[in-house]
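sry for the spam today, last one i promise. C-alpha cells for design, 182 residues
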C-alpha cells in the first residue's frame, strides 16, 4: 500500500463512501491553493480522476470549463486500492444502497384476466368493433350500472392497463370500447 498523507486518506475514504465514488466535497479547511495542490498530486498518482459533472444529478463542481459545464472528481480503482478497499466491494455496496434507497423491487407480474369470468366477458364485449353500451354490459353480466362503470375504471383501466374509450353514438348512447392500438 502506498504511503498516503492524512488529507489524501481522508479524501479517498470519504469518496469511497459516496455514490459513484465522488471525491467532492473536500474536507473542511482544504481550500484554495492547498486543495489544488493536494488534488493535483492525487490526480498525478492516479487516485483521482476529473470527469464531466452531471448538472442534472447536482454533482459538485471541481472546476468550471467555461461553456456552462464543469468537472468533478471521482476516486479511481487505484485510489480505492490505495486505501485498502477492493473496487468490486464498493460497486456492490453502491448497488445495494441504490436498491435500498429507491425501494427497487422486481417488476410485478402483469395481471391477466381468467377465462370464463364476467370480467373476461366484459373485455370481449369491449374489444368487438361495435363496442358495448352500459345497458348491454349490465344485461350480459347481471351487474348494476355503477358496478359495471367501476369495473371499467378500476379493473380494466387501472389494474390491467387497458385503454378503454367511450364515445356518444347517436341512438345507442355512450359506447365503450377497448382501443386495440394502445
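last one done:
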Amino acid at each position: 500500500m502506498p504511503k498516503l498523507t492524512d488529507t489524501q486518506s481522508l479524501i479517498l475514504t470519504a469518496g469511497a463512501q459516496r455514490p459513484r465514488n465522488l471525491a467532492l466535497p473536500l474536507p473542511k479547511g482544504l481550500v484554495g491553493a492547498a486543495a489544488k495542490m493536494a488534488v493535483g498530486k492525487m490526480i498525478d498518482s492516479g487516485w483521482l480522476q476529473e470527469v464531466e459533472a452531471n448538472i442534472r444529478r447536482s454533482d459538485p463542481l471541481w472546476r468550471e470549463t467555461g461553456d456552462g459545464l464543469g468537472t468533478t472528481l471521482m476516486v479511481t480503482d487505484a485510489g480505492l486500492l490505495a486505501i485498502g478497499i477492493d473496487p468490486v466491494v464498493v460497486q456492490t455496496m453502491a448497488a445495494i444502497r441504490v436498491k435500498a434507497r429507491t425501494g427497487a423491487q422486481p417488476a410485478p407480474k402483469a395481471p391477466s384476466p381468467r377465462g370464463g369470468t364476467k370480467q373476461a366477458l366484459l373485455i370481449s364485449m369491449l374489444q368487438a368493433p361495435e363496442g358495448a353500451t352500459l345497458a348491454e354490459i349490465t344485461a350480459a353480466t347481471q351487474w348494476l350500472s355503477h358496478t359495471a362503470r367501476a369495473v371499467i375504471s378500476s379493473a380494466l383501466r387501472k389494474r390491467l392497463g387497458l385503454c378503454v374509450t367511450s364515445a356518444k353514438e347517436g341512438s345507442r348512447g355512450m359506447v365503450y370500447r377497448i382501443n386495440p392500438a394502445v
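Residues 118-178 form a domain with the Arc Repressor Mutant, subunit A fold (CATH 1.10.10.10). ok im logging off now
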